[in-house]
């Protein structure tokens, strides 16, 4: 499980680098969601920290992540959807 979380962390850093090149870099920073990695990659329930980060993250960023080839597999995954539901954060329809 630690290896999977490490892979997600690396991917999030790579994606953050790509996002920082875009116009919305100041507000869309996927590394802010690393608290959710164990729940999205594994089967553990989301922590309060994860839910807090999801709720504070701009909805427009989730649309951006859903379109990003590196991020969409996490946002659109069954576990990703479970995390959003458990945290009571609606995934925006983009």
Structural summary, described in words:
- With 94 residues, the chain is mostly helical.
- It has a domain of 56 residues: Hydrophobic Seed Protein (Orthogonal Bundle).
- It is 59% helix and 0% strand.
- The protein is built from six helices and no strands.
- The radius of gyration is 12 Å and the shape is globular.
- It starts with a helix and ends in an 8-residue tail after the last helix.
- 29% of the residues are buried.
- About 23% of the residues have low confidence.
Major pleated sheet: none
Here the CATH topology of the domain at 32-87 equals: Hydrophobic Seed Protein
* CATH homolog superfamily of the domain at 32-87: Plant lipid-transfer and hydrophobic proteins
Radius of gyration, in Å, reads 12 Å
Uncertain runs: 5-26
Strand content: under 5%
What is the overall pLDDT average? Answer: 79
**CATH hierarchy class name of the domain at 32-87:** Mainly Alpha
CATH architecture classification of the domain at 32-87: Orthogonal Bundle
Q: Could you estimate the helical fraction of the residues in percent?
A: 55-70%
Straight-line distance between termini: 31 Å
The class by helix and strand makeup works out as: mainly alpha
What is the molecular shape? globular
The succession of helices and strands, N to C, reads HHHHHH
Oligomer: single chain
Query: Count of helical segments?
Result: 6
Number of strands: 0
């Amino acid at each position: 499980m630690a290896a999977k979380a490490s892979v997600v962390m690396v991917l999030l850093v790579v994606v953050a680098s790509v996002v920082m090149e875009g116009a919305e870099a100041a507000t869309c920073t996927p590394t802010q969601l690393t608290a959710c990695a164990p729940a999205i990659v594994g089967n553990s329930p989301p922590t309060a920290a994860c839910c807090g980060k999801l709720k504070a993250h701009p909805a427009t960023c989730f649309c951006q992540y859903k379109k990003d080839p590196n991020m969409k597999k996490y946002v659109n995954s069954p576990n990703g959807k479970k995390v959003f539901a458990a945290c009571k954060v609606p995934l925006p329809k983009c």
